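Schema walkthrough. Field components (list of strings):
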Amino acid sequence: MWYKDRGFEAFLNRVKFVKVVFLVFWVFLFLRTFQIQVLRGFKFQKKSEGNYLKKFIIPPSRGIIFSKDNKIVAGTYISYNLVSQSRPDEQNLKKLLKILKRPARELRRNILMSLARGEVLITVAKDLKGKELIPVAARLDEFEGMRIVKAPKRFYPFGKIFSHITGYLGPLPKEKKLPYSYKGALHGISGIEKTCDRYLFGIPGGEVVEVNSRGKVISVKGSLKPRTGSNVYLTIYSNLQKIAFEAFEGRKGCAIALNPQTGEIYLMVSSPGFNPELFLEGKVKDLITSREYPLINRCIQMKYPPGSTFKIVTSACALNENLIDLNEKFFCNGVFHYGNKDFACWKEKGHGDVDFFKGFSQSCNVYFYNLGLKAGGKKLAEYAKKMGLSLTVFKDIEGELSATIPSPSWKKKEKKYPWLPGDSINMAIGQGYLWVTPIEMALLVSGVANNGVIMRPYLIEKIVSSEGKLEYQAIPKVVKEYSLNPRTFSILKEAMRKVVLSGTGQILNIPDVIIYGKTGTAQNPNGEDHGWFVSFGGEEFSQFSLVVVVEHGGMGSTSAGPISRKIWQKYIKLKKSDMETRKKEDRG
Amino acid sequence: METRKAGVGGRKIPLCIPPFSKGGNRGDLRIKNVEMKNFNLKIILSVFFLLGFGSSEIVSFVSGRALYNHFVALIIGVLFLFVFSDTRYRVFLRFRAHILYLLGIGLLILTLLWGKEINFSRSWLDIRIITFQPSEIAKFTTILLLTHYVSKNYATRQSFKTIVGIGFISLLPFVLVFIQPDLGSSIVFLAISLAFLVLSQNTRPLLILFFVGFALFFSLIYFCFHCFSFKIPVLIFVLCGILFGVFEFIFKVKKPYIPSLFLFLSLNVIVFTGFGISKMLKPYQKNRIMNFINPQRDPLNSGYQISQSLITIGSGKLFGKGYLKGTQARLGFLPGKYTDFLFATICEEFGFVGAFLILIAYFILYMEILKISQRAVDREGSILCFLIFSVLSFQTILNIGMNLGVLPITGLPLPFVSYGGTAVVVYLSMIGVVLNVNRVAKE
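Field assembly_structure (string):
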């Protein structure tokens, strides 16, 4: 039979050969399985977990920014977003569009944006309102992998009015990373939103869920609730801020008022403003390209020649150094000749004989040209620095610029040219190379009001966590204390009072209120003069000093003056009602 | 037929009445009684282990009608296993093999005409009561006819004529299955004919086959990636010409140009055949080939299967995630979790330990079949076992290799383990035949 066959031996050999081949294959399969499961098992386990475990961030609700009178300046409301765990297909999108009644372009744009940002949850529709929310929520099961999530959204009730204080939100620049951030988070880019971002942001929560291959959530493996950010309380009076902003009527300029005794900033207006909500919607092209630079906080980020307001420094220098006699008179015929140059007074006809008080209150340039010559550039620069210019102590909003204060050594270094008496003449009336920021001017005025004590300016009163714990409390701090002859202060104040009573600043002559002021009209290379008005109050209103600048507004008294008056009136009203309530409380 | 003494535990059983014999006075079937040994326990145990392992997973994935079908197929399959192990295997050979073969071919043709199309391929036949895959049945019938043909022509097994005959018998179902199109199953028919080439000891056609196969495979891959770029084929064309020219010049071949021209032309014929086939392939088939070469190419479709399969197997690690706890398969990341990729599912839930057990069970089973083929009393029995071994082991290697990402995705089920009624019934019948060969085999 078969095993006696000649071919049987050959067959057995073949089978042996096949056995060997089979064995080789089997050993290979064994080794491969071993390699994948044992040697590379950990790597594949990670991948498998990445497949079915998804981590979703629950964004924290951003803290609220309050004004001093407890109005919400920047708040957070809960909006509802429709999100998908995977990119929704066309069929689902069409079905969704029938329910949602939103333009298809908007949804596609949202999806592409989230994909580009690399978010785990792809946002399909943002900010669902009640009418849209209910039908979508009712039919949500038809769309696998989609769900509705709470999305805290920032809103700014005051819009443009507080824009430079609050700043705006936006995604972080790619090179910057914050330890408490997460993908797709919005952070403060400017203003308080930036400085207090760590407090306002809160702690994001999260959810680890098990999903199937279509992205549908099977179960929740673990979750962490988000913690709402801390609330920030400002020192700004919202009604003052509002009045001040509206007083500008869209003109470029800024106003800053602070309490000379504590350094609290009561208002900080920069006009034109911008609506911070536009940044959340991404409609910022106009803001960025605008020639009016609405994004710049003019109070701290813009330098202007101080003009006649600098005469406070010139006077202080001359008085303290005993360079002049108060009754000494100079004759002003409208022009001052020095060397081969003519320096004009603002009044072409001239002021005639001018003594110190007349020169100050009428802001006679010729008088101060003489003072400048007497004092010299070095002394003027010394006093400017002494009295608080170029103090960059305002840290609550980033980006403060420092004043440029020329001096003979400065000119030699920067301009490679020696200091000329003409420079002193120019500097005496706040022109020339002199550039200051409005906040520095406000500090200078406060220093005068406070007899040489400059308090740290601040607008963050306190930060309170969502549980009510006090996380930060501003403490008034002296940043600069300079001593001048007491007589100097009293003469300066008298002169500034005369400005209001009988000089260029009569617009602030409000009955029963003692206000000291100084106007300024600063010539500048860019166009029309800038109008300045600095002022501070006395007696019961001594807690208020104000600086108003109107860019290219012309005369200080006519441009910045009315704005100052409106602000003062509002402040007086506030103060009076405040005092009345206090009296009532005392009686009670 | 000689009568032999019963082995240990042997018993005398009456032979089944062969369905085509009339009283029986022909050939081997005349013998009414033959002593049979017991079942081969190794085969029975390993087959039932695999069936149980596979079913335990399938039960957790399918339900209702599909689960019912699976169990009906299992019961029929086990029934066939015992019936066939009690039926003299020679019943299926001789002229009956021709009838069965034609029946198989007929079913394939019917499938092409009235088959049910699932997943782009028309490979299912629905005859009201049951739906089945004729290609699986054709595997068995082709094996039977080939067994008959080869054992009849065993003496001339190296002759060209026999090889052509083998080629014809296996190529017919191959073509019919290939145009369904079911690439995986059609390759099995090629594997059967390859097994014969191994048996015939005729190495020359084997070498040519390998050469042609490789050249074809690479040209196919090339044209899948570069649809109309002829740069590299032309380069080969020119290089070969130069190479052969130099070769002839150095060795001073007496009849120049003839062998070189032959090689040169054949190479180019192969290259352009590859081009032709690449044009004929369906896009999804092309994708499969391309994704096997580069799984990262298309991570979402076919490449997705390979990478997910690797993740599934790998994440099982040494001891697995536990029964019913496999995240990859249960949460739907793994396609074909209870059919083509059931091996991966088992690996995920039972770890390397589970995979090891499966591989060992297959190893024992296939080695035992080979041993039986060495012990069979006649040529037919030996060749039958050898062929059944080659079909089953080929599919197993292809399927596990596909799961492990070392072989392209062909869509072949894992014998005894994967879900698939027809396959289970046919493979269990094959095992039944093997058991029968064993029962009459010599010690």
